[in-house]
């Protein structure tokens, strides 16, 4: 008997692998016809022996839908995305099983093909498996159970490949949608590593802050904070430290700096996420919508009742500073915001929540500040306490009164300290009072020490 396998291998002079099968339009798994998979799996049988085809129809027909082909050419033409597996004879007239195998693999590289042959003496089955890598090799004269088991494995294998292909398509689609959402966002979307370095940032940073993404990749986000003075930078650093102890999204206003050195007021949202033994910070920065009415406002008076939350402190600080922008320069506006914020925090922490300077020092030292702040906010004795802010704006000046419901403190002693004392002490220990003493034209506490009245005059009316 002629060694057909050896002749064909010498003729083709190849080793069957992924590279030997050139890609065609049909090579990739199609997933559009997945609805067909709900019916019986479709098996293609290619065998020139009618008796074998009929026997397989009887044996397999109850579980599978069979497509029967009497030669290699017919089998190659019949292969479609509906076919889940192929049972392929080797010794056939015209195209033999090896040639048919190659052509079917060109149409679908991943389709499992089982050689089903009576000519096991053509070549050692192990050599056939090694050179052609079919899913299986089953001898026709063997037990029928072997073919059934091999076919069942082939069907399960291919269905899993299709499921994986679907999952990959869905994942690619989700990733594309996410990328499109991020890149087309009007906000700056970014991620930071554990040291605050920028890992990724979208193109909105170019539109809003005028940097290219290459300008700022791997730089620290703190470098994007507008540094009119050291206090503004410390404020941003405090917020990042606060984030490490928070499981919620941290939201606050912050002035970022454009490529040209100008401040740009932004609303930041930051989220801390644990990842691979470390953490990543995901964030967004959106431009603060301008209150057009403030341009038209010449004078106003407002009364605010604040709950004991840092977010409300930030909002009111921003609102008051925005109101004075038409009457003073940028540096004065920013200093006003920082000083008002510090005084409001004092009223919240030391006034309404009763956190002493010593307690805050210890909490800052052992990173439990957010915890003690949260516990005091939940305390039934403090829940209903409010900070009352009364402010009045004219073209000449702004006047602000801040009153809490606490027990007050020795403000005379604090006002007697110098600014150098504040710089050498821990953050929050009288810093707001001493900053205000320098910045405002007038600062006055009531006798109890739970209410402060501040005045800032405008030297340059714009």
DSSP E strands, number = 15
Rg measurement, Å: 38 Å
Report the span from N to C terminus: 105 Å
**What is the structural class?**
alpha/beta
Shape: elongated
- The helix tally amounts to 17
Can you summarize the main beta sheet? 5 strands, parallel
Beta-strand content bin: 15-25%
Low-confidence stretches are: 1-29, 31-36, 422-428
Instruction: List the strand order in the largest sheet.
Output: 2-1-3-4-5
Report the average pLDDT across residues: 81
Helix residue percentage = 40-55%
Q: How do the helices and strands line up, and which of them pair or pack?
A:
Elements: H1 4-12, E1 42-46, H2 50-60, E2 65-69, H3 72-78, E3 83-88, H4 97-107, E4 113-117, H5 125-132, E5 136-139, H6 144-183, E6 188-192, E7 198-201, H7 204-209, H8 213-216, H9 230-243, E8 250-257, E9 263-275, E10 278-287, H10 292-296, E11 300-306, H11 310-323, H12 330-352, H13 357-365, H14 369-378, E12 387-393, E13 397-403, H15 411-415, H16 419-424, H17 431-439, E14 442-445, E15 451-457
Parallel strand pairs: 1-2, 1-3, 3-4, 4-5
Antiparallel strand pairs: 6-7, 6-10, 8-9, 9-10, 11-12, 12-13, 13-15, 14-15
């Amino acid at each position: 008997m002629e060694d057909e396998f050896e002749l064909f291998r010498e003729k083709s002079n190849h080793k069957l692998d992924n590279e030997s099968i050139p890609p065609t339009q049909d090579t990739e798994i199609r997933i559009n016809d997945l609805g067909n998979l709900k019916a019986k799996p479709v098996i293609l049988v290619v065998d020139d022996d009618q008796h074998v085809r009929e026997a397989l129809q009887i044996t397999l027909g109850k579980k599978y839908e069979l497509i029967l082909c009497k030669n290699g050419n017919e089998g190659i033409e019949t292969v479609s995305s509906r076919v889940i597996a192929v049972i392929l004879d080797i010794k056939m007239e015209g195209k033999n099983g090896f040639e048919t195998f190659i052509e079917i693999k060109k149409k679908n590289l991943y389709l499992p093909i089982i050689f089903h042959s009576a000519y096991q003496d053509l070549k050692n089955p192990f050599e056939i498996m090694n050179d052609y890598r079919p899913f299986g090799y089953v001898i026709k004269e063997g037990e029928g159970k072997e073919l059934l088991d091999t076919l069942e494995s082939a069907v399960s294998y291919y269905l899993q490949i299709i499921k994986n292909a679907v999952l990959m398509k869905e994942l690619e689609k989700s990733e594309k949608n996410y990328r499109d959402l991020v890149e087309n966002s009007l906000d700056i979307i970014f991620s930071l590593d554990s040291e605050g370095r920028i890992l990724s940032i979208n193109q909105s940073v170019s539109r809003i802050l005028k940097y290219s993404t290459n300008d700022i990749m791997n730089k620290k986000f703190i470098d994007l904070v507008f540094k009119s003075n050291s206090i503004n930078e410390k404020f941003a650093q405090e917020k990042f430290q606060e984030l490490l102890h928070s499981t919620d999204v941290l939201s606050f206003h912050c002035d970022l700096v454009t490529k040209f050195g100008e401040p740009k007021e932004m609303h930041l949202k930051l989220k801390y996420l644990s990842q691979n033994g470390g953490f990543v910070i995901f964030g967004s920065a959106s431009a603060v919508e301008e209150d057009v009415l403030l341009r038209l406002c010449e004078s106003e008076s407002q009364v605010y009742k604040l709950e004991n939350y840092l977010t409300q402190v930030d909002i009111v600080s921003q609102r008051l500073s925005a109101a004075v922008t038409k009457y003073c320069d940028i540096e004065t506006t920013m200093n006003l915001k920082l000083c008002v914020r510090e005084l409001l925090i004092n009223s919240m922490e030391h006034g309404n929540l009763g956190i002493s300077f010593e307690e805050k020092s210890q909490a800052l030292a052992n990173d439990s500040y957010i915890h003690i702040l949260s516990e005091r906010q939940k305390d039934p004795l403090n829940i209903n306490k409010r900070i009352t802010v009364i402010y009045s704006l004219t073209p000449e000046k702004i006047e602000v009164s801040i009153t809490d419901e606490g027990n007050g403190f020795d403000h005379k002693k604090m006002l007697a300290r110098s600014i150098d004392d504040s710089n050498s002490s821990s953050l929050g220990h009288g810093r707001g009072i001493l900053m205000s003493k320098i910045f405002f034209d007038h600062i006055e506490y009531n006798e109890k020490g739970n209410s402060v009245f501040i005045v800032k005059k405008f030297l340059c009316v714009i």
